């Protein structure tokens, strides 16, 4: 109540968040005030916004910075596994500390905590801000849209710790209302976004620029009384939000994390791992393939081909290989929050025709082809359990295609999402970098205990064989990116 909400944004592979502030200004506006506000907003955008929203978080943290955050390089944290669809860490929030579980999501950007007074949060709403001596509420309120549903909350700051890492005044969104059925039986109580940390501020300043343009057009046309007043209030709110969001650091920045890695165990039910301030790829580059990030504010890399390949000569074509997509290039988003692969519509149709899944029972899983992803001269291979699972209630046991459908194109081609199946096969390092040009993803074949092996290393038998999984889709957390790629025809990455 009593809030002014900005206009809806176009589709971005960005924060997916709408911010606004309480409406407490009088409606009466005069021409000098309109012009002054426009000038102020424009000046702030030019001088502050572009500086605050720059990519990267500076050089790798040294000495005092790491000590202040309580971290050492290569801090390895275990992620608990719930039915191979949710992997979560344990956070401490508040003083005294309250433990909340948290999905680590490379496809979102901020920390989101479900409050104990939340309507609709179900089992996820456990954090009680009234019990924390260090909790402070902010002025911004927000609506966040996920593939699993929508939530609303307000800005807050409090003490937050993850493993040995800590931040005294970590900014986060405290959710008080949710329309997300998954939360009724979810194992997570917060969402830790570890996408590129400058994205929320960049989004906010982009919104300021649009609001200024709209208000400037209205001012030039002489329409002040009704649309002009609304638009100027919109500029005020957008500017206030952008300045506050720019001052509120994401956890990657507050914890002085320049690079982190993720790996998920291959065996059903096995744990995953998050490694803060991981320097293995820097110290042992020969172990890793280097994939430049092409997304402006997302972990997107350029993929140049996708094939199904089996060892025998009798699959689809004489050479045992069948092309299914990306001949002219596509954008592959590496998203740890997405439970399945997300595949363009045309590629799904080709996979269905080639595989004829109805003819495969569960004992035939090992006979299915590998999914081969090409990145320039590099090839990364995923076993068949990356794209199939046991069909629910099938007796005898049958296999089915287990991917989600993408309908989005991007600046670099159709959009794929390489979700949890990719992280089960490859130890993946996300390097924020000091600039967009230096931002990169580095991957190495993962060992059985989630450590990197050198490219070309022959995987151990228990890593190479596919595992039969029964996936309960009602337990899947669907991040903002899944909502965007399944509902939008074009996505700015």
TrEMBL record:
Name of the protein in question: Peptidase A1 domain-containing protein
Signal sequence region: none
GO biological process, one term: proteolysis
Peptidase A1 domain ranges (all copies): 87-444
GO molecular function: aspartic-type endopeptidase activity
Family that this chain belongs to: Belongs to the peptidase A1 family.
Keywords recorded for this protein, A-Z: Aspartyl protease, Hydrolase, Protease
């Amino acid at each position: 109540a009593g809030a002014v909400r900005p206009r809806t944004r176009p589709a971005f592979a960005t924060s997916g968040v709408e911010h606004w502030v309480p409406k407490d200004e009088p409606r009466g506006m005069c021409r000098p005030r309109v012009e002054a506000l426009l000038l102020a907003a424009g000046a702030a955008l030019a001088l502050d916004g572009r500086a605050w929203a720059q990519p990267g978080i500076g050089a790798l943290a040294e000495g005092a910075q790491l000590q202040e955050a309580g971290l050492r390089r290569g801090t390895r944290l275990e992620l608990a596994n719930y039915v191979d669809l949710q992997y979560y860490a344990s956070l401490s929030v508040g003083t005294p500390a309250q433990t909340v579980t948290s999905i680590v999501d490379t496809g979102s950007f901020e920390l989101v905590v479900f409050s104990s007074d939340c309507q609709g949060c179900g089992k996820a709403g456990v954090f009680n801000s009234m019990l924390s001596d260090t909790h402070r509420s902010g002025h911004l309120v927000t609506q966040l849209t996920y593939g699993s549903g929508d939530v609303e909350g307000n800005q807050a700051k409090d003490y937050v710790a993850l493993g040995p890492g800590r931040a005294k005044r970590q900014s986060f969104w405290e959710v008080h209302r949710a329309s997300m059925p998954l939360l009724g039986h979810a194992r997570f109580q917060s969402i830790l976004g570890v996408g590129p940390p400058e994205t929320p501020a960049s989004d906010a300043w982009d919104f300021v620029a649009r609001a200024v343009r709209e208000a400037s057009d209205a001012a030039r046309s002489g329409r002040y009384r009704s649309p002009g007043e609304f638009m100027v209030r919109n500029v005020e709110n957008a500017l206030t939000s952008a300045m506050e969001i720019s001052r509120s650091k994401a956890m990657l920045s507050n914890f002085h994390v320049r690079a982190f890695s993720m790996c998920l165990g291959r065996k059903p039910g096995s744990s995953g791992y998050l490694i803060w301030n991981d320097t293995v790829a820097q110290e042992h580059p020969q172990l890793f393939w280097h994939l430049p990030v092409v997304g402006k504010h997302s972990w997107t890399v350029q993929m140049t081909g996708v094939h199904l390949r089996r060892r025998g000569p009798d699959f689809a074509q004489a050479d045992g290989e069948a092309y299914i997509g990306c001949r002219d290039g596509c954008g592959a988003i590496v998203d740890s929050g997405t439970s399945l692969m997300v595949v363009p519509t045309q590629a799904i149709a080709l996979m269905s025709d080639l595989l004829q899944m109805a003819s495969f029972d569960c004992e035939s899983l090992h006979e299915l082809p590998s999914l081969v992803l090409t990145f320039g001269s590099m090839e990364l291979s995923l076993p068949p359990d990356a794209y199939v699972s046991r069909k629910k209630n099938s007796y005898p046991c049958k296999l089915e295609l287990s991917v989600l459908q993408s309908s989005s194109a991007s600046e670099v081609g159709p959009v794929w999402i390489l979700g949890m199946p990719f992280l089960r096969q490859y130890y993946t390092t996300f390097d924020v970098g000091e600039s967009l040009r230096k931002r990169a993803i580095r991957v190495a074949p993962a060992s059985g205990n989630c450590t990197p092996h050198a490219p070309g290393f022959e995987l151990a038998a228990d890593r190479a064989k596919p595992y039969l999984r029964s996936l309960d889709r009602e337990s899947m957390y669907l991040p903002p990116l899944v909502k965007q790629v399944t509902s939008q025809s074009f996505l700015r990455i």
